[in-house]
Amino acid sequence: MLARMNDAITVVGSLAADPTLKSVNGDQVAEFRLGCTARRKEGETWVDAHTNWYGVEAWGGFADHVRASLRKGDLVIVSGKLRIDQWESGDKRGTSVRIRAEHVGHSLRVGPTTRARRGGPVEASGDAQRPPEQAEPESAAAGPAPDAWADPAAAMAFGT
Question: Is CATH 2.40.50.140 correct for 7-110?
Fold first, then answer.
């Protein structure tokens, strides 16, 4: 190991595969690969640019939650400590980029998701529907919600 970083980072990306669960010195660890693709606008069209790949690990009870909640293709937000290692093995050299996750959550940009209360089943569906009793009133469904960043006064009216 030649160089090492340990900085805070937050990334948004898609899981390359379902998380795997293993035991390391008696501790549970969930691991998954996360692909984060930059996008740029060319004229009126958005195009994908370079993809950065990160290995992500979650430890302890957190590992069980990650394994139960995430699936291949899920768009997630990961916050944790970045670790970059330069390595050598014989005549080979490389770089390993990993994140030790402190927080992981589904991105709601692509659709709703639900969270079960502690001890209950976990639903990790990207296309979860609200129960009828929680449906939006007619007036709320008629138009888009105000943009809290563009109009702080409108956001205050909605309690955001």
Answer: yes
